[in-house]
Amino acid sequence: MKNNMELYLKKYILIIIMGLQGTCFAESDLDELMKTLQTQPAKAPMENTTGKNDPVKNYKKDYVVDWAIKPSFDLTDVELRQYKRSVKIKMTVLAASGLIIKSDVIQGSGVKFIDAKIIQALASAKLQPIPYADQTVIYEVEHEFSLKKPL
C-alpha cells in the first residue's frame, strides 16, 4: 500500500510540474516518466587500485642525500667542554630545493644553548635537492650530530 501511495504522489507531482510548464502530455508519456523515476541507476564497477597504479606504494622511499651546504657550528672551547652527548635532530626538508624549513631536537646534548646553536646552524645549511621532485613535496629526516670535545 505504501508503494502505491508513493507512485500516486510521484504521478501527481509530475502532473503539477508539467501543467505549470504548460506542457501537454499523454498518459503514455506519464507512464514512461514514472518508469524512469522507478528505475535504479546502474552501479559503476569498482576497480581494484591497490596494486600497480598506487602512487604511494610505487614511490621510491629510500633516498640518500648529502649536505649541499654543511652546517657550521660556532662553539667556543669553553662551550664544547660542557657538551655531554650527541644531539639527535628531526629536520623537515623541502625536497625540490633541499632547504631545511624546520628542525626539532629529539634528543638533546644536555646543554640547551648548544642545542639552540645547532638549530641555528641548520637554518643556514642545505641538503641536496631530490631531482624532479615537485615544489610541494617535503620529507623528514633524522640526523645525529656528534661534536668533538677539545683536548
Automatic annotation (TrEMBL):
Protein name: TonB family protein
